[in-house]
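Hi everyone, sorry if this is the wrong subforum. Our group has a chain we'd like a structural model of before ordering constructs, and none of us has done structure prediction before. Sequence below.
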Amino acid sequence: MDAMRNIATKVKRGEIEPAEITEQVVADHLYTRKWPDPDVLIRTSGEMRVSNFLLWQISYAELVVTPTLWPDFRKAQFYAALEEYHRRHRRFGGL
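Answer:
Right subforum, don't worry. Here is the predicted structure as tokens:
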């Protein structure tokens, strides 16, 4: 929401035109703008939802869901999630 407010303020001040708002403009206003978007999101507890976590940044991330609860998530589960991710063919929105 802060990113949208900042962009809206810039539009109101005439610093940017609405037609100039692109995905990159939005990304540049996020708190995570200094870091690359994640390639994989590991979701613990078997939940099949992301709970509003990094919604913009994970648009092309692979989701790996594990039934392990977060307090029990250890190195073995982490490696298993990475192995599952490694087996995937990433298409970045294409076919």
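For your construct planning: The mean pLDDT is 93. The chain has two domains: 1-35, 36-95.
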